[in-house]
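This part of the workshop introduces the protein records we will be handling. A record pairs a protein's sequence with a compact description of its fold. As an example, a complete record with its sequence and its structure tokens follows.

_____
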Amino acid sequence: MAVPFQVFSRCPSCFQNFVNLYCYFTCDPHHSEFVHVNTTRVDVKTNKTLITVVDYTVSNQFAYGMYNSCRDVEIPAANEKALDILCGKPAKDCNTTNWLDYMGDTINGQTPFKINFYVGNDSVRFPDNITIYPLFRNITPCSQPLTNTSSPCSCQDCRTACSPVKPPPSPPSPWEILHIDGYDFIMGVIFLTFLLFFGSYAICYNIMVQDSLGETQFVDQDKSSRYDNIKEEDLGCMEKIGAKMEQVLEKSFTRWGVFCARRPILVIGLAILISLLLSVGITLFDVTTDPVELWSSPSSRARQEKDYFDSHFVPFYRTEQLIITKTGNDTSFIHTNPPPYGQDVVFNGIFELEFMHQLLRLQEDISNLTAVHNNETVTLKDICFQPLAPDYNDCTIMSSLQYYQNSLKKLDAVIWDEDHFYILADYLDHLQFCVRAPASVNDTTAFHSSCLGQFGGPVFPWITFGGFEGDDYKTSKAHVMTFIVNNHLDDNKNVKAQAWESEFIKFMKSYDNPNMSIAFSSERSIQDELNRESYSDVLTIVVSYLIMFGYITFALGKLTSCCWMCYEQPPSITMGLVGVLIVLLSVSSSLGFFSFVGEPATLIIIEVVPFLVLAVGVDNIFILVQTFQRDKRRAGETIEEQVGRTIGKVGPSMLLTSLSESLAFFLGALTDMPAVKIFSLYAAMAVLFNFLLQITCLISVLALDAHREEEDRFDCYCCSKTSYTDKLQADGILFTFMKNYYSHFLMKEWVRPIVMVVFVGYFCTSVAMIPRLEVGLDQKLSMPEDSYVLDYFESLNKYLSVGAPVYFVVKDGHNYESKMGQDAVCSGNGCPENSLNGQIYQATKWANITKISHSSNDWLDDYFNWLKPGGRPSCCRYDNTTGDFCEAIDTNPNCIECNVSKFKDNRPQKQDFMKFLPWFLKDNPEIKCAKGGHAAYGNAVEIKNDTNTIGATYFMTYHSICKTSKDYIDALKYARKIAENITNSFQNSSEHFQVFPYSVFYVFYEQYLTIVYDTIFNLSICIASIFLVTFILLGFDFYSAVMVVITICFILADLLGLMYMWDISLNAVALVNLVMAVGISVEFCSHITRAFTVSTMTTRKLRAKDSLAHMGSSVLSGITLTKLVGIIVLAFSKSQLFQVFYFRMYLGIVIFGAAHGLMFLPVLLSYVGPPVNKAKILKKRENDSTINNQHTTNSTTNSQTNLVTEHTNFPDYNCRL
């Protein structure tokens, strides 16, 4: 009864019913009424008659009652049913009849003679005319207590003891309105409403206001006449403030420009010196590649829980895993089970003996791998996890070969009957038993061998096999071999493991077996492949930047025709190179500054920030250089004064965009997500440095270059003069196209409504698609296209049958010695249903929702059973001479049973609890005591030696299979919900009772629980900061700030819609790109908007046409074309991550930004842009009068034809550029 006692005693009713079956059989005074001796034989040696077969009749009530009371009893350490061991077949296939048949057969290794059980309520008459009658005795159901002072079996061990439990809520059904998706319906209504009102307005405007017969010019003249008689008293307060703000900004930038132009060497020298000093910090540059540090904030819940787990137990192990299938895995073979069943069963081809031999040789080859680190040989035993150390030093290898203790002899063993007529057992029979009872120390086949691995612990079949149907492991299509390696908090202690893993990877890459298809991965594989991917794409990135730099140099010239030789000014190589060097210096200064501060960088910084700064910087460079190129120097004006005047025009616009972006990025660093925070900090500082270098170095170099050109010297080689002295004054092609053609076309009355309808329609469509965006990151995208890890990921999804382990951790402070404290966590007899283990068990009933696949390992109940007296021998023994612990297999005569006080309510007394717990945790499971906790619970219980109390503990189970990001996110959410319910259930009874779940992937997927909120928060504060800066720098112009924000929101919505259509999920990488998109969108919007606000044209349409004509070409040639030529190169990257999150998103950013900045925004401003500032018109009139008195008639004539006033106080966008 030793084995039944160990597995059934946690349910007293079951165990008592089972014991009664044999007690009545052997001790009942009337057992002749239901027992019949069927066959006897005479022992030749003793001449005694021995019974060989007995008949035993049992009533339906007793037999079925006993079965029903035992069918649910579990073995916590093995996560299996007790009947998996005692029925000869899986518990799900076990019933009353075949259970009794197996228990009565001598093949189980425990029954001394065969017992034929007859189940029924009718008598049975035998050939010897003896009639026996069924055994009718009372059965105690598992839902009832065995005695008045005991408790019924727990819900986990008895389904009839469970209270009805409300299932978890199903995922909400899609939101619909009138059977249409709710978001589609609402956005459709919004668009139709817009179409109705805007269409009505456009039609009425063209019919009633705009003369369709061609009299628009008279309407414009009537509008302009309203401003002919403006007086000082007509000006509003905000108009005066706005005009004053423009005056202050222009004067300040004009004076600064003149200063830099007059002292170029000093300005350039100081700027470069400061930049180089900051760049020196790069020597301290530290790149964070640890995914935990990259994606999980130190203050996040998952990170804190991981740190708690690592500090109280051991860090989660390093794993080296192989998924092995048979080449052409469509074969199968038939195996005949031994008596008494004898039926044929079908096994998949991966279980063929020869294939198992090859598998064993592969495992041995890997186990014998060695590596060299610091001239020291490193073997697997030096780094592997050894759960039974120091008693046993075998490595933990989760493999089906562990069922044979990695022994070729056991694998090949065949047990025949006495006559050598048929096989009683072979490796497949042993395998069938072990997958049902992996923690068994003695199978019930003729093998009578242990199922425990060579390392001393159980090997669960759902871990070692893959691709099976249900829980029929014979149908498995793959072997899963996992080598468990110790992990350490100190990375320096992991270097030996990393060295061995490198040799493992080399070996697997070179391993060749035509019968095997192997997908493999090591703990370091993902990090290695990420690094390889980064290095492999360096060339792609460099080529992309070189093309953009080359374009910048080429485009800064003024092309007046399609012919290269028709440049008014040849390509300004000097200005292009200086602009590029400024970008590089600003990035290096940002890197150096934060390296000094001690803020580590990420690979995203190196890949993304230069792209961002190039986008921002190039736009400003083009605007500054092209404005200067198009400007005509006034009579008597020096080059320095002309440069200063140019800076006065464009400086405020440069300040507006740079300050908006920099502040937006700085505020974006308020997020807790490390990758986004670090990017925002580096980007903000890089943009700020870029602006500072532009208004210092670039201005000084512009002045020097102007002097060079004035003296007809060669570009880059200024020591020599050129003979080419003709200087045409024609406008550039892009400028001419934008001014004379594109702006006129866009402002046509039939074009503007089409633009508004198309953009608003696409915006509504995109907004409707945003809720459909997937959250997460497919880990396959992070790998290069030729990575071996991709095969591993594919095999995981195809064959993996169980998810990652999950530990429900009870924090330090809980009292396990009290009954109340034990009730909070236990799962055995007398435990409440809402205990920790009870709630986890309930969660397994809805594994498809909760993602909890198995009941948890319960060290507390196994400890109770281990400590409980009654075993033969008892599990708890000690040497009465030394006081040391004795294992059950120890034959030392001085070993005696522990002096354990009588159990109360099936629990040990308080004084015994801590006294014997350390012995339980060091006891190895053996054939005489399978409950030893060393293998299963050696690391699960923290014992504080200073106080001899229990600290933190954990209860381990497994998640169900997770294949997508949604699966992982749901697993995390439901695990936390279960832990929260457990904590709340016993919070009132124990104020120190706190439970949290921990699994190795939580730190990576926690970000997705709040990614939507983080996205809204980051984008909102970025947009809010842009609104604030725009509002202030445009002279407290609320109207213009709103226009900028609306356009940026349209760009973001369209980009999010593109993400859905192009299968780009929302994650931290996408969020970084979205934050960057906000910054780049400012470049597309703010320059146009500011040009519109400073224009003194009298109608919105003329001002929109004017701003587009003079800023559109710089925006198009600067940021749009520059980025497009570089982005196209990224499409050829080997990295899937680059192709998806950089090429696709960057392309979307540039295309949507350009489309909205050059099409939507001018049209929007032409309809609802801010009204003209009358203070600026009044000032224009005053300046015109002054210019008429100071300039020649020719100059006066030219001044009157300007579209925007050229004066000393306001930017001039109306001069003939």
